[in-house]
């Protein structure tokens, strides 16, 4: 009996420790609800045909773009994808911020967490911003009035 109880407790401990290390994409909906997509590997995240599409080996999710407020990665993932209004998007790829589908005359501002303006640009379509010269840390990116927090890890 002690052996069975010990095995059960050890199994629960292993399952609980694995559960806390899991990573998710968290989709924040306009209505205030959230959807968590568990990750085993890096996902493919796209905005196409008016939908946010998240695909992994185990999951495929499509959500109407207008019902999504934003999405973020939980856990220790090197990269962030953000859906901006009017179909624009921003993705962190290593030490680069890649902006896509920017409307004409889009204002991009890059701030330190203390509120110091570090860079600004007016762009359209696709724009790539290098983060090489900035140290590790937390930064704020504002695109056409929509702010997003990013974390530079390298």
What would you note in describing this structure?
The protein is mainly beta and 154 residues long. It has two domains: 1-77, SH3 type barrels; 101-154. The protein has one helix and twelve strands. Strands 7, 8, 9, 10, 11 and 12 form a six-stranded antiparallel beta sheet that branches. Strands 2-1-6 form a three-stranded antiparallel beta sheet, with no helix packed on it. Strands 3-4-5 form a three-stranded antiparallel beta sheet, with no helix packed on it. A hairpin with a 4-residue loop joins strand 4 (51-55) and strand 5 (60-64). It starts with a helix and ends with a strand. Mean pLDDT is 75; it is low at 5-21 and 76-80.
In total, the number of domains comes to 2
Tally of contiguous helical segments: 1
- Residue fraction in strands: over 45%
| CATH architectural type of the largest domain | Roll
* CATH level 1 class label of the largest domain: Mainly Beta
Number of strands: 12
Cα end-to-end separation = 51 Å
- Mass-distribution shape: globular
State the helicity in percent bands.
Answer: 10-25%
| Backbone CA Rg | 19 Å
How would a crystallographer describe the biggest sheet? 6 strands, antiparallel
Structural class: mainly beta
The poorly predicted ranges are 5-21, 76-80
H-E string = HEEEEEEEEEEEE
Query: What is the average of the pLDDT values?
Result: 75
* CATH fold-level label of the largest domain: SH3 type barrels
């Amino acid at each position: 009996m002690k052996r069975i109880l010990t095995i059960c407790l050890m199994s629960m401990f292993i399952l609980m420790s694995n559960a806390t290390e899991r990573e998710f994409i968290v989709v924040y909906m306009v209505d205030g609800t959230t959807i968590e997509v568990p990750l085993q590997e890096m996902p493919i995240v796209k905005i196409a045909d008016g939908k946010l599409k998240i695909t992994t080996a185990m999951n495929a999710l499509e959500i109407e773009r207008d019902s999504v407020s934003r999405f973020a990665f939980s856990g220790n993932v090197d990269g962030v994808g953000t859906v901006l209004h009017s179909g624009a998007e921003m993705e962190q790829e290593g030490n680069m911020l890649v902006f896509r589908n920017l409307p004409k005359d889009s204002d991009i501002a890059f701030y330190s967490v203390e509120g110091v303006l570090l860079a600004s640009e007016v762009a359209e379509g696709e724009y790539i911003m290098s983060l090489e010269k900035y140290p590790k840390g937390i930064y704020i990116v504002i695109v056409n009035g929509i702010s997003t927090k990013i974390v530079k890890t390298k």
